[in-house]
Specification:
The complex is a heterodimer of chains A (735) and B (191). Chain A has 735 residues and is an alpha+beta fold. By secondary structure, chain B is of the alpha+beta class. The chains are: A alpha+beta (735), B alpha+beta (191). Chain A: Keywords: Ligase.
């Protein structure tokens, strides 16, 4: 009896492996007997999770949970398989599952024991979870003394007590800088939190009020699921509950395979994205002071039975940065995008997880559990860009099957999460010395990618949360007292170019006002293109950094003069409408915390989606609409889309059809005259590799691949360029 | 598989951008047309000036078609303009024309200053059809990066096991022959 859960876990794993069906369920007997009752019952279980979330968001304090819904709730079998999941950040279809399975595997049933009223928590990616900022609260569900399942909730915190403020920390280079860790801990019993846990959590973060209320939200939601499950068992009986909670998982597994075979084409699909870590100048810690180019390829194999094999061969190694991750982070991010493309409309649960296999080479940023002390605080830095490749791969497969309306050429990166903290001066009525976090989360509404039949959605997509919501400015200002929004508007030239354009990004000029001191940092891609398009579409723009210190903005307000509300580097408003003692414009967009003073400006900009198809084939009507909506500047309209703009007597711009057609014709001729046959390009690139004419981070990326991505290195890199095995040696010392 | 004129018209209207957003949303949200594959092929086949049967569409312009050469029946990649690339198990990019943007200046032909990758970190490769100079693919990759083979469909499994149809090309292995093609066709020049 002592380890009955471990036996159950092992039995189900064995039954699944031996039979090929979840828990050996070759037939769905309950569903076959009475499908209507089955559907009704499943709906009640899903509704329990959804209702928990809807209530919990009103208990939470942080706008991240309350306004944006950065939370989800789930029901699990006794051995930890997800049965039903709420809406929201469905990243966590498998993460809490990992927590539960780890606790069972580690013998928690014997010691410290699992009893009715116990409360467990985890935020360690090595055991489950995505990053420390996502806190899990998990309750065992008992019915007349028998453990019949688990309920769990997760919310995204404003601050987790790391080396700096923030929810996605830049400056953490080891586990000891990640902040508060709950490592599959029992944090309460008899439905009460332990006093030592309350002390530790309140004193371990910079925003204890938000932490406390979010904790209550998670407990309340999980408790709601628990009570609904007990009511369910009272209504349907215990045997029915056990059976249906397994059947719904097997049902979802079958649905996933059937959907895959309905929508996709079997075969191999490849895409790659990159990320830049500009730490040579930015990092404080000596071990982190280098610039890194991260290689993020993803290969999807759609197998004959409809299952997917996701192959991460060739991904870069781990390092002294916060972007490392563990299994559940990788799977979590995979699932949140896969459910949006293939799994929508179904019951999302462990069954989906059984429809795929992953290969994650050891020693990479996404498989490194043997290295205990790595920071795994901000894995989103790499998991967000890598899965643009998943979208691009599946879009190609959908297209081949005739479902041209499905999938996209990726998405804008949910990046530029400006964060930090402020001590208020009291100027605007708040208590002096009060601390307020900077925790912008407009990354929840970036541009979506295009596909063959439509443009991408403008400023309305978040890969990690299908219910994208940027939140109200007023809500943000209430939380981030001291960081004022001077604007929130569309940022021109941010939509990836293409026959169908990507969704546009947007921009915000932030003013620090009423602060005694402030620190600010951010994350985004600046030295690489953040994504790429499909079928001739271009990547969206790369980000950058813009700050202004020692400004005359307060005087400008007093005199009712214009002030900068955005930035376009070709004609910067900040030059015309501001006097500043220092303007920092950096080519990269990930920077360590910097000091700011009252009256300083922080510019925030959000990414666009990538394009689909040849921009010269974009209809003139669509181009005219872009022009009128300010999606692009005249220069981009001309140089990328071949659009000649004329102005009517009323001063309105319109597309000159004849002149545009002529310009497009000339641009096609220019393509012919300046492009070269592949063979010529091949020789040029190969010779450049042989002569070693590459910048340090690129050379280091290839050197790293020769160690942690040997299959990629040998079968793709060396074989393509016809280079010998010892090739790398000729490059000498990378320094 | 017979498809109706209405189905073909709807496919064309989606691709050409004539369909309203509301109608398009319905297409996305409704149950899928089980004949979409045949509709797309029929639509494209009706638009192109050549007759090789389309086996699988890859993009707006690139199609895998059945090509008879003597007694050989191969699956090759063909552009809607009629230009023929090599067989589909070799990355079509090795027979495309390429223009590479490596410098700040060339990035700034497309992107505002500062809103593009840093020179040396990334280059933009534009792959054109040598027949019509349509832009077929864009890669944003570091210098020296092998060209990406975007899509290698398993045609035989698709036709035989998923569509339950015969594939009108000779039986063949499902394998990537790109590096073999490169070794056979591009002489090594040592620096």
């Amino acid at each position: 009896m002592a380890d009955s859960l471990r036996d159950l876990l092992n039995e189900n794993v064995q039954r699944t492996e031996e039979s090929g069906y979840y828990a050996g369920l070759r037939t769905l007997s309950l569903r076959n007997q009475d499908p209507f009752r089955w559907e009704e019952a499943v709906t009640k279980l899903v509704a329990a999770a959804v209702a928990a979330r809807e209530v919990a968001v009103h208990i939470a304090a942080s706008p991240l949970t309350r306004s944006l819904g950065e939370t989800c709730f789930a029901l699990y079998t006794p051995d930890g398989d997800a049965v039903a999941l709420s809406t929201g950040i469905i990243v966590h279809v498998h993460t809490m599952s990992e927590d539960i399975k780890t606790m069972i595997g580690d013998g928690y049933e014997s010691f410290p024991g699992i009893r009715d009223g116990d409360i467990f928590s985890n935020n360690d990616p090595m055991l489950g979870n995505v990053h420390t900022t996502d806190i899990h609260t998990i309750l065992p569900i008992f019915y007349h003394g028998e453990l019949v399942g688990w309920s769990g909730g997760v919310t995204h915190q404003v601050d987790i007590g790391g080396i700096t403020p923030g929810h996605d920390i830049v400056a953490a280079t080891s586990r000891y800088e990640d902040g508060l860790y709950m490592t599959n801990e029992k944090i309460g019993e008899q439905d009460r939190l332990y006093p030592h846990y309350l002390l530790r959590s309140r004193q371990g973060v910079r925003t204890p009020l938000y932490y406390d209320l979010d904790e209550k939200a998670r407990i309340s939601g999980s408790e709601m699921i628990k009570r609904n499950v007990i009511a369910f068992i009272e209504e349907y009986g215990l045997d029915f509950y056990h059976q249906i909670s397994r059947e719904v998982i097997e049902f979802s597994r079958r649905n996933f395979l059937a959907r895959s075979r309905e929508r996709l084409v079997p075969g191999r699909f490849r895409a790659v994205s990159f990320a830049d870590t500009p730490f040579a100048k930015e990092a404080w810690q000596p071990q982190a002071k280098r610039d890194i180019l991260h290689h993020l390829p993803i290969e999807v194999n759609v197998r004959p039975d409809g299952s997917l094999k996701v192959d991460y061969e060739g991904n870069s190694g781990y390092g002294a940065f916060a972007w490392n991750t563990a299994l559940s982070s990788v799977l979590g991010a995979l699932w949140v995008v896969l459910t949006q493309m293939l799994g929508y409309g179904e019951v999302v649960n462990e069954g989906f997880n059984l429809g795929l296999e992953t290969y994650r080479p050891k020693g990479t940023w996404l498989n490194n559990n043997e290295v205990y002390d790595l920071s795994r605080q901000t894995p989103w830095f790499l998991t967000i860009p890598i899965y643009t490749g998943l979208y691009r791969n599946l879009q190609r497969s959908f297209f081949g099957r005739g479902y041209i309306e499905e999938g996209t050429a990726g998405y804008g990166l949910s990046a530029d999460a400006t964060q930090g903290g402020m001590v208020l001066s009291g100027l605007t009525g708040e208590p002096q010395q009060m601390y307020a976090p900077i925790t912008t989360f407009e990354i929840s509404s970036v541009g979506f990618g295009a596909n063959p039949v439509r443009d991408g959605l403008d400023h309305g997509y978040a890969m990690f949360n299908p219910e994208a919501d940027m939140g109200d400015v007023e809500d943000w200002e209430r939380l981030q007292v001291g960081l004022r929004y001077l604007s929130r508007r569309l940022k021109p030239d941010t939509a990836g170019y293409g026959r169908r354009r990507g969704g546009s990004g947007f921009e915000t000029m932030g003013l620090l006002y009423g602060v005694q001191s402030a620190t600010v940092f951010s994350v985004n891609m600046g030295q690489v293109f953040p994504n790429a398009g499909n079928a001739g579409g271009y990547p969206a723009y790369s980000a950058y950094t813009l700050h202004a210190h020692g400004t005359d903005i307060v005087e400008r307000f007093a005199k009712q003069q214009e002030y900068p509300r955005g930035d376009h580097p070709d004609h910067p408003e900040i030059d015309d409408h501001l006097v500043a003692s220092q303007i920092d414009r950096l080519p990269y967009a990930t920077y360590y915390p910097r000091s700011f003073a009252d009256g300083d400006l922080v510019y925030m900009k959000y990414t666009g989606g990538s394009g689909y198809g040849d921009p010269l084939e974009r209809s003139l009507a669509a181009c005219e609409k872009d022009l009128q909506e300010g999606i692009y500047t005249l220069r981009v309209m001309s140089d990328v889309y071949g659009i000649v703009v004329s102005c009517d007597q009323l001063g309105n711009n319109y597309v000159d059809i004849e002149a545009s057609q002529q310009l497009r014709h000339e641009m096609r001729q220019r393509r012919q005259s300046r492009s070269v046959p592949f063979a010529e390009f091949y020789q040029f690139e190969r010779e450049r590799l042989q002569s070693g004419e590459l910048i340090g981070p690129v050379r280091e990326m290839y050197r790293d691949l020769s160690q942690v991505g040997k299959r990629f290195w040998e079968t793709s890199f060396l074989a393509t360029w016809q280079l010998p095995q010892e090739f790398m040696l000729s490059w000498g010392d990378p320094s | 598989m017979e498809v109706t004129k209405e189905q073909i018209k709807r496919m064309g209207s989606m691709l050409d951008g004539c369909m309203s957003s509301k109608e398009l949303f319905q297409v996305i949200a409704d149950e899928k047309d089980p004949h979409a594959f045949d509709v797309l092929i029929t639509y494209v086949q009706g638009k192109v000036a050549w007759t090789e049967p389309i086996l699988l569409p890859l993009t707006d312009h690139l199609m895998i078609v059945a090509k008879e050469t003597g007694k050989q029946r191969q699956a090759i990649v063909k552009c809607t303009c009629g230009h023929e690339f090599t067989e589909y198990r070799v990355n079509w990019k090795v027979q495309a024309n390429v223009y590479v943007r490596r410098s700040e200046e060339s990035f700034q032909e497309l992107y505002p200053q500062g809103m593009h990758a840093t020179e040396g970190w990334h280059e933009i490769r534009e792959y054109y059809c040598p027949g019509c100079f349509a832009l077929l693919d864009v890669e944003a990759v570091p210098p020296g990066y092998p060209p990406v083979f975007d899509a290698l469909p398993d045609l035989q499994t698709f036709y035989r096991d998923w569509l339950m149809r015969s594939l009108p090309v000779d039986p063949h292995e499902f394998e990537d022959f790109t590096t073999q093609y490169i070794a056979d066709n591009f002489a090594q020049r040592e620096v």
